[in-house]
Structure formats: structure tokens, C-alpha cells
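Renewal narrative, Specific Aim 1. Our central claim is that a sequence can be written position by position from structural information alone. The example that follows is taken directly from our test logs and has not been curated for this report. It begins with the C-alpha cells describing the chain, in the order in which they were read.
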């Protein structure tokens, strides 16, 4: 095993049980605070990638988003959070156009920077809403949130190994040269047993289990979109990683971009499926 892969695996072995324990045991206010800190850390990285200059301006943008999270935590009900998740889902679908024209928003013009920063705030707020909705407002919420993580990161691991072994044809060479169609197919194939096992353990069967599998596959595709959008931002910013918080993984966005894209859709889909 290469040193880079070993570092990546060791970091994952520390992060995974820590996250699971937090999901299962933290009381609701502490969990909301933890998710807020995570999203704010990601937004801090996003503002740098978006080209926002000066720490005071970035800190002001961070404070606005933090105030938004506080207001949502104190006043928003599940229906309000569900609307926010729906809006984020819509934006992720519109983001397909960004992959078609990856030079959109490039440069240091004020308009481009403002649009990218606003997009980041919306997407991370949608992920925040998705995490809170699933964990706090669904029966067996912690279990479903862990299932969401298992689908996204199980698919990501399957993509990594299948892409390294079989990858030839590039998925999006102008955006992320390391991603291949073989990696995507491996991710989809690897998601099937993970999603079926998670759904069965959480009490689904028959048509509901099949619907959950379709939801998991759709959210996996969204997670790939999230990864590619971050790659667009990093390419425009001329950096390899969004940060260096997690050894072998990079920053919060490097580790969380896929999950942040999938969480709003998971929340919307699970509310429909379990209603």
C-alpha cells in the first residue's frame, strides 16, 4: 500500500467511527452545532476557492451564514427545512450546466465571485437542512443518516478502486482527469449491496426497499456531481485541495463535497418514501 493510500485509509478509520458516534449519541442541539461548524468550515474554504479576497470580507460572509444557521435552528420547522432542501436539489440540477461550460464564473470579477459565494452558501445550507431533517425528523433518523453516509462513501470507495483497476475512458477530462467511467460504474455497482443491506436493516421490504435503492442510486449520481463541481472551483482557483484539515483527504470540501450534494436529495426522497 502506498503511503498516500495508507494515510487516506488511516484518516478514514478515525473519522468514520467518530462521525457515527456523533450521529447516534449527540443530543439534537449539539448535533446541529456540530453540523453548523462543519458547514461553516466548508464555506470558509469555498469563499477562498470562489476568489473572495481578504479575510475580513470572508469572515463577514461566514458570519452571515452562521447567523442563518442559528435562525434556522431556533425557528425553522421540518417543512421549512424541507423547502430549503428542495431549493438545493434544484440548484444541483442547474449545476449540470456548469459542467457543460466549466469556464462559467472563472476570473476575479465581482459578479462572478458574488455568484459563486452565494451558490456555496445555498448549497451548504441545503446540506445542513438535509442532515437535520433526516436525523431529527424521521423515525430511525440516526440510522437513516448513517445509511446515507454509507451509500455516498461506499460508492466513493468503490469508484476509487474500480477506477484505479479498470479506468481507461475519462469521465470529465477537462474538469477532473482522475475520474473515469469505470469508476462511476464501480460506484453504482458497489452502492447496490450497501443500500439494500441498509434498507433491510432499517425495516424496508418489497416496493419500499426497491424505491430506497433507486433513491440511493440517484443520490450517488448527485454526489458525483458535487465532486465535479468542487473540481471546477478548484481548477478555476488553481489549487489541488480545498484545505489540509484531513491528512490524505484535503479539506472539508474535499472530504464532504459528495455528501453535501447528496444530503438534500436524501432528505426529500426519504420524507416521500417514509411518509
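The sequence written for that structure reads:
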Amino acid at each position: 500500500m502506498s503511503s498516500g493510500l495508507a494515510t487516506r485509509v488511516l484518516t478514514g478509520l478515525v473519522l468514520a467511527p467518530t462521525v457515527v458516534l456523533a450521529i447516534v449519541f449527540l443530543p439534537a442541539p449539539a448535533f446541529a452545532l456540530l453540523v453548523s461548524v462543519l458547514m461553516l468550515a466548508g464555506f470558509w474554504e469555498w469563499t477562498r476557492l470562489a476568489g473572495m479576497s481578504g479575510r475580513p470580507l470572508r469572515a463577514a460572509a461566514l458570519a452571515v451564514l452562521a447567523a442563518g444557521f442559528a435562525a434556522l435552528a431556533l425557528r425553522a420547522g421540518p417543512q421549512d427545512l424541507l423547502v430549503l432542501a428542495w431549493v438545493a436539489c434544484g440548484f444541483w440540477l442547474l449545476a449540470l450546466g456548469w459542467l457543460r461550460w466549466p469556464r462559467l464564473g472563472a476570473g476575479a470579477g465581482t459578479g462572478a465571485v458574488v455568484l459563486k459565494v452565494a451558490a456555496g452558501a445555498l448549497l451548504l445550507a441545503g446540506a445542513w437542512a438535509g442532515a437535520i431533517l433526516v436525523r431529527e425528523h424521521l423515525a430511525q433518523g440516526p440510522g437513516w443518516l448513517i445509511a446515507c453516509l454509507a451509500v455516498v462513501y461506499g460508492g466513493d470507495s468503490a469508484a476509487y478502486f474500480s477506477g484505479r483497476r479498470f479506468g481507461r475512458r475519462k469521465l470529465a477530462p477537462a474538469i477532473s482527469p482522475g475520474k473515469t467511467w469505470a469508476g462511476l460504474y464501480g460506484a453504482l455497482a458497489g452502492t447496490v449491496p450497501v443500500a439494500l443491506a441498509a434498507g433491510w436493516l432499517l425495516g424496508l421490504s418489497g416496493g419500499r426497499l426497491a424505491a430506497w435503492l433507486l433513491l440511493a442510486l440517484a443520490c450517488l449520481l448527485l454526489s458525483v456531481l458535487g465532486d465535479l463541481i468542487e473540481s471546477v472551483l478548484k481548477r478555476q482557483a488553481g489549487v489541488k485541495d480545498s484545505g489540509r484539515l484531513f491528512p490524505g483527504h484535503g479539506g472539508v470540501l474535499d472530504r464532504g463535497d459528495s455528501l453535501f450534494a447528496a444530503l438534500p436529495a436524501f432528505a426529500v426522497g426519504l420524507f416521500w418514501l417514509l411518509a
